[in-house]
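Tokens for chain A. Residues wanted.
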């Protein structure tokens, strides 16, 4: 029996007998703790519903007063603890950066849904650190790739993703709500396909 058939059978069996696969839940559970990024102490934590107003504030600061996601979108994502992980970085109790990622065993993909760093803390390694955490989680779960979309105009972010090993694999025309800007589709392969 090949690996894909075995996975399908396992999924069917677990669903039939309502056995929960806690592998993702266990891997996505992190303890809040201090981290050092470029010789500066920060506090890394799982995002909570109480963080949403500050996350929206970061979006407004980054996106010229707009919030691509609203509070209900964040709340919906934070409820999905079995296949989502949202992290925040704080310093002196100020929320400085956040990242969100969805993990799919079926697609064998970790998809970075959202990342933002307050403007006065950009280029200090916070975004790099947060993405590296998600890449490690994806590797721990033996996923095939990490994927994301980025605005075509955001060349600075694209360079950060390239520095981490992401490659452009496509372009999504008119992807972003509101201004209909194109999105650059980027992927970081984690395993070589045989």
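Reply:
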């Amino acid at each position: 029996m090949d690996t894909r058939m075995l996975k399908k059978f396992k999924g069917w069996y677990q669903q039939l007998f309502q056995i929960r696969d806690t592998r993702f839940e266990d891997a996505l559970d992190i303890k809040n703790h201090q981290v050092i990024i470029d010789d500066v102490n920060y506090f890394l934590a799982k995002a909570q519903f109480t963080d949403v107003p500050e996350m929206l504030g970061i979006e407004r600061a980054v996106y010229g007063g707009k919030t691509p996601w609203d509070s209900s979108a964040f709340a919906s994502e934070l409820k999905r603890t079995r296949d989502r992980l949202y992290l925040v970085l704080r310093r002196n109790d100020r929320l400085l950066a956040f990242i969100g990622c969805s993990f799919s065993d079926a697609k064998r993909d970790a998809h970075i849904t959202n990342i933002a760093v307050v403007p006065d803390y950009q280029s200090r390694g916070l975004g790099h650190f947060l993405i590296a955490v998600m890449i490690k989680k994806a590797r721990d779960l033996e996923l095939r790739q990490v994927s994301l979309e980025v605005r075509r105009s955001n060349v600075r972010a694209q360079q950060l993703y390239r520095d981490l090993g992401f490659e452009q694999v496509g372009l999504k025309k008119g992807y972003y709500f509101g201004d209909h800007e194109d999105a650059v589709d980027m992927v970081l392969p984690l395993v070589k396909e045989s």
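Residues 126-140 form the longest helix (15 residues). The chain is about 30% helix and 30% strand.
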